[in-house]
Design brief:
Number of helices: 5
Oligomer: single chain
Order of helices and strands: EHHEEEHHHEE
Strand content: 15-25%
Radius of gyration: 19 Å
Mean pLDDT: 87
Low-confidence stretches: none
Number of strands: 6
Largest sheet: 4 strands, antiparallel
């Protein structure tokens, strides 16, 4: 199966993830909060195991407005950076499987990468969906081994934001795993719809 712009005629809708669905958003945010708490605990714990020189988490000291501005920048920059890299990885795999340019941008409070009008086989979409979480987490954890002590907090912020922010991807991936391998996924930015063959 390959990515296609024409859904086979014998396919029918089999579920939809929608950012416009209040019920789905509530469920996603509850699990997102749980994932955030786990991330805040796990990544510093891991860091302490591999970097005994690491003693504090997110300790920013400031005596004036300039120090405060620097502290805020040190928090905001990793967040922006990881959001851009996260969506760039999605975009790369959209391109890899379709050989067409994906749509990337910001909508409200979230960034997105999507491929409106393209249907991706289940296994391809699983890779598209989970790759940012896996690749950034792996690279970040390796970076924790060698990063200067002064940079560890920045790496941890990026890891925590990437992991907790990937709850939407995980939500879709887990749901898609319940579908047959013949499923197609259509990503329309606000919605991701699944299609399966008629039984």
């Amino acid at each position: 199966m390959k990515a296609t712009q024409s859904l086979p005629q014998n396919y029918q809708p089999a579920g939809k993830f929608s950012l416009k669905s209040i019920k789905q958003l509530v469920i996603m945010n509850i699990f997102g909060l749980i994932l955030l708490i786990i991330s805040i605990w796990f990544f510093p714990w891991f860091t302490k195991q591999v970097r005994p020189d690491f003693n504090t988490l997110f300790q920013f000291e400031f005596d004036n407005l300039l120090d405060l501005a620097v502290a805020l920048i040190k928090i905001i920059l990793p967040i922006i950076f990881v959001l851009l890299i996260h969506e760039a990885i999605h975009a790369f795999f959209f391109w890899f499987f379709s050989k067409q340019k994906p749509v990337v941008g910001f909508k409200g409070a979230y960034a997105y990468a999507a491929m409106p009008g393209w249907y991706f086989p289940r296994n391809q979409y699983l890779i598209i969906g989970i790759s940012p979480l896996l690749l950034i987490t792996l690279f970040g954890m390796l970076l924790l081994l060698v990063a200067p002590t002064s940079m560890i907090d920045l790496v941890l912020i990026a890891l925590i934001i990437n992991t907790s922010g990937a709850i939407g991807d995980l939500f879709v991936v887990i749901w898609l795993l319940t579908k047959p391998t013949t499923t197609y996924a259509l990503d329309e930015i606000d919605t991701i719809e699944f299609f399966v063959p008629n039984s």
